[in-house]
What we know:
- The protein is 15% helix and 34% strand.
- Helix 2 (361-373) packs parallel to helix 3.
- The protein has four domains: 28-188, Jelly Rolls (Sandwich), CATH 2.60.120; 210-323, Immunoglobulin-like; 331-650, Glycosidases (TIM Barrel, Alpha-Beta Barrel); 654-757, Immunoglobulin-like, CATH 2.60.40.
- The longest helix has 18 residues, at 467-484.
- It is α+β, with helices and mostly antiparallel strands and 758 residues long.
- The protein starts with 27 loop residues before the first strand and ends with a strand.
- The strands form ten sheets. Strands 2, 5, 7, 8, 9, 11 and 12 form a seven-stranded antiparallel β-sheet that branches. Strands 1, 3, 4, 6, 10 and 13 form a six-stranded antiparallel β-sheet that branches. Strands 15, 17, 18, 21, 22 and 23 form a six-stranded mixed β-sheet that branches.
- It is globular, with a radius of gyration of 29 Å.
Amino acid sequence: MKSLKIIFIMSILLGCIFFLSRVTGADTLFDSFEEGNDWEMVTWGDEAKLNISKNEISEGRYSLKVSFTPQGRKEKNKGIFIRKSISGTPEELKKIVVDIYNDTGTENISLAIALDSEEYYESPQTVLKKGWNKNLLFDLLQNNFKSGSSGWEYSTSLKKNLGLGAFFFIFYLNNTKYGEIYVDNIRTGAPAVKKSVKKKTPFIKKKTAPGQYIAPEIRSVKGHKGTVSQYGLLELDVDFSGTYFDPFDSSDIQLSGVFVSPDRRILNVDGFLYSAKFDSEKIQDPVWKIRFTPDKSGTWKYFVKVRNPKGKVRSSMYQFTCSPSSRDGFIRVDKGHPEFFSTDRGTFYYPIGQNVGWASQTEYDQYFTEMAANGENWGRLWMANWNVALEWKPMGYYRGLGSYNLNNALRLDEIMQAAEKKSVYLQLVFDFHGAFSTTVNPEWQNNPYNAENGGPCSDPQEFFTSESAKSLYKKRLRYIIARWGYSTHVLAWEFFNEINFTDGFNRSIDKEWHEEMSRFVKRIDPYKHLNTTSYYNEFNEKTYELDTIDFAQIHNYYSEIVQMMKNIPARMKQFNKPYFFGEFGSDSRDGVDDLDKKGVFNHAGIWAQFMMPSGGNAMPWWWNTHIHPNKLYYHFKALAAFSSGIDRREFKFTSIKEKLSAGDITLELLGLQDKNFIMFWVCDRKGMKYKDREAPLNIMNVKVTIKDMEKGNYSVEFWDTYTGKVMKKISLNVNGKILDLKLPDFKNDMACKIKKVK
């Protein structure tokens, strides 16, 4: 929200060159896998599994294990491609150095490096001997690449100032059918990013060697019940001993539960630090929990485990009975109709609601009560620094980057529980644009990712490219999913509110960042919640095309809302996924919509969106200054009543968009038509803008012509869109393909349902 200044920065994907040699001179450590695994498989190559390992280590405590079998082979000698982002230019980095352990028992494995910049480049292959291949050096300044422009001869060099984004290791398997390869101690010849101030984590000690740790021991597991209802909550309190310095870093300490379903599925669920007292560098009275939601009735078995750098331990096996329930479960994109939502049980779900970005607990209780009483089933909540963010510049209960505000976490627990009681599904927004902007609702100056505050980013755009920033962000994602992923009433995780307002917004970087983060979430979220993100007005098509971004949103503040909404379905059809207006209003400036005491504009927006082929309704923004103070919830109640019983999956709708007239009054008709069911909404265009009509006019003698009708008997209902009641009902017979329907007199607008009677 909502002023706009976008600066575009060009970025290019990476590269490296191959030259085998002994390493000389000082190197800068790039990745030794001590913070987990940020590498990913590239889908066009052979399949393999990537895991962090304690075996075959040349530096630190961990290495990356690449495991493969014959089942993963796609084509002969296709190769295993693994990819990771990098920053800098060939001239800055000079070289990439790596240690690789070949544990296949053969010397048929060969290694190459590839890059993708203006075109595809690849280095020569080199054979990996059995065992260690240490200090392999890839010289970025050599001229031995092959590419299309060189006729695939190894004779091309990289431009010294070429912007690098990612590089690839390629393992050519040749005739090797299965085995393991270990990668460790990746270095560069010079720092690739600007030097940043050391991040401030007041309560976290510098990590020590594994010998300084004491291995964990599980003292007790409490909360395991004999019976849990289907889609209900099993909450475990796990007490354990052992050394850890960062309770939010899974590489330092990790609590998790392993659950085996009645049909033998295995679900891994992360635990989390629920509460603690922080005294200087000490963590006192820590309470650790695991939250789990069973989705199938029957007998479940599970155990918990704890791991730190010194060792790991697991509990005894427990079990509980999951009893059947009438709960619908989690919200999904409907498998048979990808433009709509449904629940785990297959029940159609159409979101109707409003934004509830921030509030006190008392206000949230009031909002959810009013929303539920008036047919709303959706809300959108921000994890903003003034609401329920987990990390921010040290102040109050905030402890800086990587150290989470457990008071806010407890508040969000309470908000989630309140929403669940009222059957309101929440769309949880992780970050908002202002936190990474110096111009639009600027908060960058207090953002803990800012280097001025001890973070890794010299400017907001680095948040999306810095490996340190991305690692810290993934750490926060892991905590969010561990603590609130259990809830069936989390409709979706939304990565960003209006990301195109962040400084230096770049569409290519935006797409790459969302792809990396959404795939990470899909991998670690045991419940597979929906993922989304949002833009103001102009969205990034490449991001919404990602298969891990489950639905699209529009945010728009425009006084001609009805006319604007008419143009959206054609733009969204390309994605073949649900969409709706995540925010709308007549103006983005504070106080403008508040003048509309009767909510005429909101009324127009929600009814216009309902008559579009969208996955959900349009969601107004001004919840705290406009909707709640003016008691405008009744508009949603009327729409919910009209919507009741309409399962859009049952119809093959086409849009109806017509202009009508009643004397000198211009009317707009929006609707959806199927051979067995038609619904439409007619409005006075000026009456939908509170400034243009001081009082609603009587609209009389309106005739609607509907084409392509099937012969037969029909039931027709005319609805009052303010009371949510049928004001007139008639029966009629259609002999031909055209129906001329006379509407009853109305003011401002009305809606109609036409159903074929069997």
